[in-house]
Amino acid sequence: MKTATRYIIKQVVMGMVIATVVLLPLFSFFDLLDQLDDVGKGTYQTSDAFLYTFLLMPRRFIQLAPFIALLGTVGALGKLAVNLELVALRVAGLSPIQISMAPIAIGITMLIGIALLEQFIAPQLQQQAITSRAVALDKTAELGKGLGIWTRNERNILRIGEMLPPNRAIDIEIMHFDKQGFLAMHSHAEYAEIVDEQLWKLHHVTVRTFTEKNIALTSASSVEWQSFLRAEDIVTLTKPPESLSPLELVRHAAFLQATGQKADAYLMAIWRKVGSALMTLAMILLAIPFIFGLAREGLGSKLVLASIVGVSVYLLDQIIANAALLLHLNPVLISLLPSLTLITLAILWLRRIF
């Protein structure tokens, strides 16, 4: 039995490797084509486009993992079915459930690998890709065109016009409010140097102090300011939520909620990572009844049908997630519902077959 299980595992792993070799270069090629449109702008060269695409590959693998799992499992088990090896395994005493445990074990191992990639490799490489591209194109990360980057804590609102690498912020506005919620001070600096964890050195500063009777105006060539933003908070503000690690997302969502700001996009990103992991396992579970439930179909037909199911699920998941952000729906429910629905359907289908 152990030999048969090892053989099934080997075939499924090979199927997933083949699916990865096909899908990852294909989608990376689309990324490269998109980047080649910007070649020639600023100092952005063809080598930069290739580097950006390469650094984005771990993120693309994570995004493609559910489809790699589906196509790899269908392809491997389908090949065994076509060659009548599944029949031989059944005759040798393996039940369908025992055969199914091998791809499920691979799926769990795959989830552990994806979790490690998601925390320690993909975010760092993706952020490096975004930063190097922005520098070459002479662009800055903004939350909205012409609006700059906005954040706040309990008593202050901070607006940053631009963030320039490595440690410079341009066009700074700081609005300080008193305990009653009235504007007490407004400071504007042409630029700021981020000295350490929370110390900023503001240059060419204009300060307006508001009192009940008048407005006092003062100027200074440079002023030190104790920022309420930590270095990791600046990183999260200038990077899209999907490029952050789970730990960064949790920390920044907590920061936004603690300061009364909307954290919907970050909460959605957190739970979508969990939902994507569950989706990978759901696709493997769904692949098993594809083989045992469609025994008369050829391998090609099974792969085509699996591809259609995978693309349909992906598009539906994207539509639901975007609609949830617009309608402010529960991020936990929206993120986990597609994968949990597929897992339920796969289990019900497996019970009917077995």
UniProtKB/TrEMBL annotation:
InterPro entries: LptG, LptG/LptF_permease. It comes from the Bacteria. Pfam families: LptF_LptG. It is a multi-pass membrane protein. Its main location: membrane. GO terms for cellular component: ATP-binding cassette (ABC) transporter complex. The keyword Membrane applies. The lineage of its organism: Bacteria, Pseudomonadati, Pseudomonadota, Betaproteobacteria, Nitrosomonadales. The chain crosses the membrane at residues 12-30, 61-82, 94-117, 274-292, 304-326, 332-350. It is found in: Cell membrane. The keyword Translocase does not apply. It comes from Nitrosomonas nitrosa. Keywords: Cell membrane, Membrane, Transmembrane, Transmembrane helix. This is Lipopolysaccharide export system permease protein. GO terms for biological process: lipopolysaccharide transport; transmembrane transport.
